[in-house]
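Last lecture ended with a question: if I hand you only a sequence, what can you say about the shape of the protein? Today we answer it with a concrete record. The protein is DUF4371 domain-containing protein. Below, first the input exactly as provided, then the predicted structure, then a couple of comments.
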Amino acid sequence: MLEDIGKIPQVQYTIRHDLSSQIEFFEERILNFDSVCLENLKNQSCHIEKVVKRQTTQEILNNRLRIKASIDIVRWLTFQACAFRGHDERPESKNRGNFLEMLELLASYNEQVGALVLDNAPQNAKYTSHQIQKEILHVFARNVQSSIRHDIDDARFCLIVDEARDESRREQMTLVIRFVDRSGFIRERFLDI
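The predicted structure:
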């Protein structure tokens, strides 16, 4: 039992020695960290508001480029009367639909776009979903309708309504407006389905 008492102080000394070396190392790290913090405080470009502002500006530019690519593709597919979606839009699919395939083509010809779209885009800002495509189409439709309203202005017009069944035997109604423009020509414009 006396032998056990003699060993206890040696163990405590070893713990104290290890602890003191760790404390010295930690104090050295704190001093180094403090000096780095002081240098960063002096350096205006490292201030958090400037870093966030710079990052936010870059993110805004990236998002604008992504949405511009999507808008241009929707515009082209719309004018060409092409379908947007494919049956299988998974990344491993051979044909993912016209919209995604066109975006890949655009990315292959433009490095700046390629670096920001599809797999390189953040999950919350790809701007390729079906909802985004529909929203862009609705914006185009509102612009066309606004242009038609501007063309009609105060002219007299008539509304032509027609109904037809599609292949699935679902009835669809179309609205066409006929009016006389400022030059005296009769015009017809498709309004809605």
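Comments.
1. Residues 48-132 form one domain.
2. The chain is about 60% helix and 15% strand.
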